[in-house]
Amino acid sequence: MRRILAGGAVCVIGLAVWLWGFGGDDTVLRWALAGQERAQNTMAGYLQRLRANDSAALAGLWGICFAYGFFHAAGPGHGKLLIGGYGMGAQVPLSRLSVIAVISSLAQAAVAVALVYAGVFLFGLSRSFMTDLSDRWLAPASYAAIALVGLWLVFRGLRHLRRAQAAPHSDVCHTCGHSHAPDAAHVAQANGLRDMIMLVAAVAIRPCTGALFLLILTVQLGLHMAGVVGVFIMGLGTASVTLAVAVASVTLRDGFFARLATSGRLPLALPLVEIAAGVIVAIVSLQLMRASL
Question: How far apart are CA 91 and CA 195, in angstroms?
């Protein structure tokens, strides 16, 4: 099992080196943006067919919605940063991180629905105003929330590191009968509902621009059901990528820790990795926030 985890970790590291060391991120970005543009144009065509009472176009529209969500998540996005960074830094089980990845994508879709329908029917807002609201205000707010999550990982990692240094081997104290240093099981138990809510909220604050585009058009055309369902299917397309990031981050983390499990350095390595992941998440999200202002 350790060899499998180690092999998976090597693959993830190799992918990371290609993405950020050899220009692979630019290649992926161009491919994702081109895919989004094609999907958006195809989406508009299906909406025109639905407007003309072509019911067969509905399945095609929802299929292209999933594709758009996939291409959107494959490009630059805050969801991957948060899920990947948290998966590396915290001893969260893969099953729980996978649930967070799916729920955050669907919550992002729900925010898009709430924003458009409240904007159109309650406040009479225009399409350009809602898009501007998402890009100029909600995007920086989302990046700021993610930076706070990164800082929280740093704070928690420092706290765990202090405890590990006080009792390096995480043994049970002969005086009080308690363990004074966090092991993997203790840290995993600390990641509960509070962390899940924090992660989901940080991702969901800023809805996808493509979801806003689809909802505004379907509201104008009176195709409400097609738009709302399409946006949640788009969220599932996004979730397919964030799920892959969750698997990769947990595989890399477990492969790294499997190497340290028998060396006696695991109690110190756990908080150090948590601190490093938090620093990276905070710095990258603050850079993205600055670029979005």
Answer: 12
The tokens for 269 are 């390595």
Lowest mean pLDDT among 49-58, 149-158, 160-169, 236-245: 160-169
Please, where are the H alpha helices in the chain? 2-21, 24-51, 57-74, 78-89, 94-117, 127-133, 139-166, 184-190, 193-204, 209-221, 224-260, 266-292
Distance CA 205, CA 195 (A): 16
Tell me how far apart the alpha carbons of residues 153 and 273 are, in angstroms, rounded to a whole number: 10
For residues 46 and 18, is the Cβ–Cβ distance under 8 A?
Answer: no
Q: Is the pLDDT of residue 231 over 60?
A: yes
Instruction: Tell me the average pLDDT of the chain.
Output: 78
Residue 256: C-alpha distances to residues 8, 182, 265 (Å): 10, 17, 12
Name residue 239's amino acid.
A
- Residue spans of beta strands (DSSP E) within 166-265: none
pTM value > 0.85: no
* Residues in contact with 64: Cβ distance below 8 Å, sequence separation at least 6, in sequence order: 39, 42, 43, 46
The two tokens of residue 75 are 């490009």
